[in-house]
Amino acid sequence: MKEIIVDSKYDGKKLNTFLLDTFNSLSMNLLYKTLRKKDIRINDVKVSENVVIHTGDNIKVYLSDEQLFGTISNLEIIYEDENILAINKPAGIEVASSNNSLTFALNSFLNQRQSLDKMENSNIKNIEVYPCHRLDRNTTGIVLFAKNDVSLNILLDKFKNREIEKHYHATVYGIPKMKHADLTAYLFKDSKKSLVYISDIPKKGYEKIKTSYEVISINKKENTSILDVTLHTGKTHQIRAHLAHIGFPIIGDGKYGNNEINKKFKVKTQQLTSYSIEFKFITPAGILEYLNGKKLVLHQK
Fold first, then answer.
1. Whether the Cβ atoms of residue 24 and residue 100 lie closer than 8 Å to each other
2. C-alpha 139, offset from chain centre
3. pTM of the prediction?
4. N or C: which terminal CB in the chain sees fewer CB atoms within 10 Å?
5. Fold of 165-275
6. How far is CA 36 from CA 39, 75, 103, in A?
């Protein structure tokens, strides 16, 4: 059983919208089967219909974790030492959002991995890792986690001060005339709509962003390009919105891309991967000083 509270985003929405958005592996068929069996309660009242819900409602769903969240098997560890861990995040999962996140799955995996050691030594404590940055739900690639509070604080500071460089591969529709470009624009985040907007000129409420790209390859027949993108400022949906703004939407992006193009390529998630993270410290890094100059690279298939 899982118990969740409805936030303001879903006030006045239908129950199915909230539950399907919340639980990765919950299907429509299973949801309605669960309703028919009255295995869902709202404020401790059993419900059998797809009712309207409101902010603050307490919802209990009597299904297993596997039915609700699925399983993340064969987590690919890119790098691990006593302080940090880097994971290849699959599409379709948030980095950190309660019990259906990569963080939750990773902590479960790590604690299962050391279960034998705990049987031999009862003093071994459960592992808990903390994400140092985010990727969008359907963006794949390297996510960096800290294994302790000291490492977390150092890495958060390094990301904030741009002492960690992130590179992405993006497959876009169109072929840029410029093989390399440093793009500067201004971004506004609309939290209510979960959207961002890009402007070429400064505006009230907009923050300055910088994104660079280099063309890696082109396909004239398909009119597509693969770009190596460097993120200089880490704002919400920055790469996706910025590339779409200059006329090169990422294929598969349902929010900032083109639906007809996505249908043509039969792709449902943005073709965007965080493939490398490089530590470029210019200030002291304490216990993580040994990482300076190190580059973590995802070897894509």
1. yes
2. 6
3. 0.74
4. C
5. Pseudouridine synthase (3.30.2350)
6. 8, 35, 33
Ordered by start, the domain boundaries in the chain are 2-65, 77-163, 165-275
Each residue of 177-231: pLDDT tens digit?
999 999 999 999 998 888 999 999 999 999 999 999 999 999 999 999 999 999 9
Within 9-151, strands assigned E span 40-42, 45-47, 58-61, 77-80, 84-89, 130-131, 140-146
Residue whose pair of structure tokens reads 């082109």 in the numeric block: 218
Chosen CATH of 2-65 out of 3.40.50.2300, 3.30.450.90, 3.10.290.10, 3.40.50.300: 3.10.290.10
Closest CA to 85 of 129, 134, 29, 119: 129
Report phi then psi at 185, rounded to 5. Answer: -155, -165
